[in-house]
Amino acid sequence: MQVKDLINKLSQSKPGQKKPEPEESKLLEDDLHPALKPEVVTTPEKKTRLKVPDVLAPLLQRKEKQAYEEYDVEKHGSLVDAHIPEWHELLEQYWVEKGRSLIFITLNRKTNQNEYLLFEPTLSDFEHELLERIHEDLRDVLILSTDELHKDRKNILFDKMYVLLNEYGLTLEPTTLFKLQYYLLRNFIGWSRIDALMKDPQLEDISCDGNDISLFLYHRKYRNIKTNIAFESDVLNSLAITLAQRSGKHISTGSPMLDATLPEGSRLNLSLGTEVTTRGTSFTIRKFREEPYSPIELLDYGTFNVDELVYFWLAIENNKSLLFIGGTASGKTTSLNAVSMFIPPVAKVVSIEDTREITLYHENWIASVTRPAMTEGGSAIDMFDLLRAAMRQRPEFIIVGEVRGVEAQTLFQAMNTGHTTFSTMHAGSVDAAIHRLESEPLNVPRNMVQALNIISVQALIYRGTERVRRMQEIVEIAGLDPSTGNLRVNNVFVYDPVHDRFDYTGRSQVYAEITERRGWSRDQIESEIRIRKQVLEAMQKQGIYDYITVASLFHLFHIDRQKVLDNLSDLRKVSQ
Question: What is the DSSP code (8-state) at residue 186?
Fold first, then answer.
């Protein structure tokens, strides 16, 4: 049989034959088709190298390196061949990457459960085998030179791929090239088979429970949903190690558990092997956006209304301490990060976290994270150590990601000594939060709790069939009752679930204290509230959402408020 005929035969897919994922099969040299099997040759310098078999030379001419066109779905069409499986009914479909990764949301009639189906470009036998060969050879040639250090990684990867194709002497159809580009980019720079999931803005959580078990997701619209993606043991272990390495952490069978933050800000919890999780390696990725939510976005989503944001703005500007409480996934950290944008410019801020989640547009900011012991017998750096160190740095604002241990006592000591602190805690109500603060292992004395000014209670609730995040109530700690010794609280804002709105009770101790300390009259405090409300509403109306622009406008308002007020009709002119 002619080699050309053999290659043409390989390019035809065998019906019904399942092809392994490119990174899931490690083909041995004996498994490669002879048309692609390398030959070891010795150079005059006594070095060995691989070359394409001579049998290809008469049929495939070497081409000089040439420019290849970029994939354009409008011009080249979709690379995905998707079909609805039997017993499934299509509910919704959308592109994560147009033309290259498609999502079907279906209803499985057998289980009566929704499923999340990912479809990527389909590879023929020849394309799959060629991709495997390129994947292996790229490991040898992907060594960056000094000139390439500052080049785009995608362009470098594609350049190396084209060099290899020229070495092979292959001239490929554009569609095949686009498929190779997609998988190489996905596997080398992206997140392998979960790359599309990481890019899907509709997903909040990605959960893998073990070997050969379908991944589960938390979808913003369809909530908990099963996928058509599962990993074999060795592939899953390889992915787990990659996730740990990209987080800048180490994981092994000797230390099989890991909490980390991925480069784009998502939170990772990982267990390697079967020592801790008996069904195999498991991981959960809680996705966070690279750019944090701004207060204007939370206003748009209905998490807070404009009066509540003005309340936080004035409270933070006047050094009031805040605590955000709620259940899992209620938006505590998101809200904490958003209102932290009200911090005045150049004020010194120290943030303390187990895994990095806080992102501020603030120059005078020390972002500190805990660290496990690096060696056996070495010393770990926990939140208590970081908080104790922060107290010596004379910060004006201390942000603690979450209080859950003995560091709570130091945090409240900081409040009692005049430091403004923001933090989060798991609790369903104000009473539950206070009870937890006073109990093991936090053990905060009640007379110290009164240094806290504001507690914001948040929850993930249903509005019809949709799950949304809403502030349930904003409560002020009004001190101790001298007769009973109990804490007195004052509800400032309360959520009305029937009408989906927030009601102001008409009384606020924080506003009263600000008025007294600033020497303002009632008209002046109302004027300050009204002006800030106008600024927030103007930003919402003009679609100013990105956190850098929003924070810049808050900083400018603090420095030169008249400039902001003079440009309320077009705030973008002064946001640069």
Answer: I
